[in-house]
Amino acid sequence: MAAKKKAAKKSARKPNAAFMKPMTPDATLAEVIGNKAMPRTEITKKLWAYIKKNGLQDKVNKRNINGDDKLKAVFGGKKTVSMFEMTKLVSKHFD
Q1: Which domains, from first to last, does the chain contain?
Q2: Global pTM exceeds 0.85
Q3: Phi, psi at residue 14, to the nearest 5°?
């Protein structure tokens, strides 16, 4: 006889309050994503939408983002950053 496994109860995942707190982008970041206050998750979504729309993801190494003039300002003047470095640099542009 095969033992029946009990289905593990999945608790509904609760969003982290810090990620859901609306943040206001500064003027530099607002040029890319708009100046409306939004949660960090939404800021990241809008940033990726901008990157994809303008074809700024590196063709060879997909983890790198090649900044245009607007993104270079957000990236502190760097032309290319990794997607992991990008989150750190972008976090400096909202309060």
Answers
A1: 26-93 (1.10.245.10)
A2: no
A3: -95, 130
